[in-house]
Amino acid sequence: MSLLNELLSGPIGKELIEGSSKQLGLNKASTAAAFGAALPMIMGAMKNNATKSEGAAGLLKALANSNHSSGALLENLSSVLGGSNIDDNVLQDGGNILNHVFGGQTNNAAEVLGKTSNIDPAMASQIMKMAAPVVMGYLGKNAMSNKVSDENSLSGLLGSLLDDDDEYVQTAAKIQDFDHNDDTIDDLANKFKQKGNSQGIIGNLLNNLLS
């Protein structure tokens, strides 16, 4: 997962996890585990949506929005996370993104994330609301620099972020269609946990925090 690892293991990832840890009162290891699962979960769900023309058009429109296309949030994390509370506008934007991506399964997505990283579902929900605008900002910035303007180029961008690993996409799809499959919350959480451990995402995040 080269580009996702680049995001999480670089200065943005470090600032995101350190700032979120302080704001939410979580230790850095739990925060890193949560973001290490939340970002590929959201990206996987977006890639799944983008396989449909309507979903791709909606995502392209959202990426063209000035709130996301410039990637300004990524340059302003210290302001967003540095005060006494997390910026309400960011959380509202995150909630809107999640509802669009996961539809009626947003709460189940938070349950999966909570089980994946051993945190309370309400805390997991907050982390997902913080992660979603970061994903959109990162996608928007890359979409602009790579001149992404259609379904094929969007699919290519999402594939590069996930290193063309469809396991995340398939697991995210099961969350999106949770009411119509046989997987439980625990099953899906274990899949994300095993995937993160096998690819060293969490370890890379913790090493980044300690460096």
UniProtKB/TrEMBL annotation:
InterPro entries the UniProt entry points to: DUF937 (IPR009282)
One Pfam family in the UniProt entry: DUF937
Highest taxon above the source species: Bacteria
Protein known as: DUF937 domain-containing protein
Species assigned in the record: Namhaeicola litoreus
